[in-house]
Design goal:
Shape: globular
Number of helices: 3
Strand content: 5-15%
Number of strands: 3
Structural class: alpha+beta
Radius of gyration: 14 Å
Largest sheet: 3 strands, antiparallel
Distance between the termini: 46 Å
Length: about 70
């Protein structure tokens, strides 16, 4: 049984090292997970897993772009 860890916005900022405005912009551009609302409230949250996967995916893409730019 795997537990799910919910992250609030401040936790996502801390984990990604991105500013709040950057995260909002990336959400608007469809480049960052939208997260969800807690039982219809305005409080947004993300799962630790979806943020970790986003970080790994972007790191992988950066490495591919860097490799492509070398040649």
């Amino acid at each position: 049984n795997q537990s799910i860890t919910a992250l609030r916005f401040k936790d996502v900022v801390e984990k990604t090292k991105l500013s709040q405005s950057t995260i909002y912009r990336l959400i608007e551009e469809g480049k960052f997970p939208k997260g969800g609302n807690y039982y219809g409230s305005r409080m947004r949250f993300w799962t630790d897993q979806e943020i970790s996967e986003w970080i790994l995916s972007n790191l992988h893409q950066e490495l591919l772009d860097e490799k492509k730019n070398r040649f």
